[in-house]
Amino acid sequence: MNYYNYFTEIEEHFVKRRGKHLLISPIDWNLIATWRTAGVPLHVALRGIDIAMDGYLARKNRGGAKVNTLCYCHDAVMEAYAGHLESHVGESPAPNADSAGESESTPNAGDEPERKEILEFLLARIREIETLCAKQFPENAQEGLRRVVDRLAEIMHPLEAGGKADTEALERDLAILDDLLVTELRAEVTEEQFQEWEKEAKTELKVYKKKLPKETFEKIRENFFRDKTRRKFHIEELSIFRL
Length: 243
Known about the structure:
By secondary structure, the protein is an all-alpha fold. The chain has 10 helices and no strands.
């Protein structure tokens, strides 16, 4: 199971099970990322979603309400993962297993972005950052942004030469660059703006705070502010999952 499919297969499965054909929210994508970081295998995550949704559908007096967020399934996913770990105590990890516990396999055509799509994405992000530097960012605060641009250009070189994209390695590189980018952008956000975002977070993340463990919620909350920061400066996230 490659890195890219972990997210898309969970999204597709959840959308199908909840019976409401709308893509999940960026906040739910962040929740999937916490599962993968925790090492939850894909098949375990899917089983947890099934357990949660089966339980929901078995309830009486639902009043036709739908499950609108993936966080509804979080407890079931983590319980399924705990059971998975317990059933495999003492076993050696499978060879070539990735961080989510699945064996690596060669993706089929169409499973992940094409090289051309990735190149277009990277070039668009470079242009966004260069436009930001030229129009909005003060000269003395551009060093970090320039480093991001230079590294993105380096990443593009082997792809431009016809090299095959390693999506997992690429996503790791982009995550590091996105951290640097957000840090540089946040330095230009006023305290008043952060206070406004705090008020919005209390409202928009209320259901997540109720249902998620504190550590998981804090990661979701941090990503909420990261997204707000990017949108303020009209900069897309450096992640191939945004393709």
